[in-house]
Amino acid sequence: MKDISQAMVDDSSESILAFKKQNELIIKQNTYLKQLHKELKGKSCDVIQTAERAFQAVVIFTQHEGGSGVCISEDGLILTCAHCVYDVDDEKDEINIRTTGIGINKTILFTSGDLCHTECIAWDPIRDCALLKIISSSSRTKVFQFISILKSTAKSHLLLCIGQPGRDDLESKTLKKTNYPLVYTSLGRFRGYLHGGKKLQNNSEIGQLKHNCWTYWGHSGAPLITQQGKLFGLHSSWDDKTTMRHGIPLVAIENFLKDFKNLEKN
């Protein structure tokens, strides 16, 4: 793989932010892991070790707006929310609704500090899923830490959410920064589905999966992980009236990936 610096010369301001976040991740990685251990206090050693491995597969976007994701294959396929790649304007993007996000480049960071340049190769704003392919890496590795996807028929009630809380305090009336860490781990539970689970493929307005892991703006795309270290869904949104967190359910993720594979074959 090419060196990441070759792929970032087009935007110096984004490069500065990316390297700043990379430096913080490297310096504070142990602090973030301690916070993970604190969240899992009382859990078995197996659960903690599984969470640590899953932590290594989580990625954060270096863009100012934030965003999170997770690696789902050793060759560097990153799953995230479609709106983290490109947020749809319904009137503007109506004609190219299924292709607008494809080809967009994003820079991401693994929690290890590995800085990667990616290209969007699949994008679905209805399911709110996107797939990125790593095309260059600061570590020059060709094998990446990843987590497997749980089968949609399986159930899990206890969930771990690992992602990037935004640094801007959007609840403040003045320009103010939050004190949240770059990567935050929260423990919560699966709380069922909207509409009785009848609209699981449509997450364009709000995620159909409900959970109560703590999240903030910037967490979109963060993996919801089981105690066994499997991907159960992606955090995507929240209801400001109920404060319930929402996400992309497994069945929508499975069908999104199935459609992508079918397109590749054809």
Automatic annotation (TrEMBL):
UniProt superkingdom: Eukaryota
Cross-referenced Pfam families: Trypsin_2
InterPro entries cross-referenced by the UniProt entry: Peptidase_S1_PA, Peptidase_S1_PA_chymotrypsin
Gene3D superfamilies: Trypsin-like serine proteases
Protein name: Uncharacterized protein
